[in-house]
Amino acid sequence: MKITSEIFQVGGEGLTSSEDAAVYLINFDGHSALVDTGCGRSLDKLIKNIQACGTRLEQIEYLLITHCHFDHTGGAKMLRERLQCRIIAHELDARFLEEGNDTVTAASWYGSELQPFIVDRKLSGPMERIELAGRIIHAIHTPGHSPGSVVYLTDSEGFKVLFAQDVHGPIHQSLLSDPQDYLRSLKLLLTLKADILCEGHFGIFKGKKEIEKFIRRFLDTI
């Protein structure tokens, strides 16, 4: 699914397993990154979708993890083995990925186990920069849904594109969610004034007004 000439949705319901959160592909001048991986149960489909966008597997340099939950990370270990790319995640979620914690990652919700994997770069600040083909992807810490939730913000074709998976939550004790952090993070997302929002389960939103309307839906849920 084409979002811009450089950004595509390559995984998620209707594209790979119905249990997968959305997986997005960024391709800047032949240098690529994936945002999240899905559960890993439809890896061959995901690979075919990536290739159908004109991206070669060896061009993928990064797996950008938004948060540790299984529907976003279950395929990370297998994909890294196939792609030989670096995995980036926030340090507050990285520990659960590296130890294969099936409770905090919600793998147990899916009747599965997370295959643990090493996070190559652990984000720690409120905002960090990731360089891809000389262009910048901003990684912004947005805790709440999980301790180490991150959104990624970049520019494509003059649009500010925000990869903000699971804006909707949920907030659950077993996931170490924090309701007050979640509300603060939603308010932070509003300040980013994105033109395109790529969400984890609700699809793609275009236009500042539509994005603001969607985010505000969840400000009154806590």
Provide an overview of this structure.
The chain is an alpha/beta fold and 222 residues long. The protein has a single domain, classed as 4-Layer Sandwich (Metallo-beta-lactamase, Chain A), CATH 3.60.15. The protein has six helices and twelve strands. It has a six-stranded mixed sheet. A six-stranded mixed sheet has the order 7-8-9-10-11-12, with helices on one face. Helix 1 (43-52) links the parallel strand 3 (31-35) and strand 4. Helix 5 (179-191) packs antiparallel against helix 6 (208-216). The chain is globular. The relative contact order is 0.15. The model has no long low-confidence stretch (mean pLDDT 96).
What key attributes describe this structure?
single chain, 6 helices, Metallo-beta-lactamase, Chain A, 222 residues
Topology, number of strands: 12
Percentage of β-strand residues: 25-35%
Structural class: alpha/beta
User: Rg from C-alpha positions?
Assistant: 16 Å
- Principal-axis shape equals globular
Distance between the termini: 33 Å
The CATH architecture name reads 4-Layer Sandwich
User: Which stretches are low in confidence, meaning pLDDT under 50 for 5 or more residues running?
Assistant: none
Q: Mean pLDDT, nearest integer?
A: 96
Order of helices and strands: EEEHEHHEHEEEEEHEEH
The CATH topology annotation reads as: Metallo-beta-lactamase, Chain A
Helix content: 10-25%
What's the total helix number? 6
Number of domains: 1
User: What is the CATH superfamily label?
Assistant: Ribonuclease Z/Hydroxyacylglutathione hydrolase-like
CATH class bucket:
Alpha Beta
Provide the spatial order of strands within the biggest beta sheet.
1-2-3-4-5-6
- Could you describe the largest sheet, including whether it forms a barrel? 6 strands, mixed
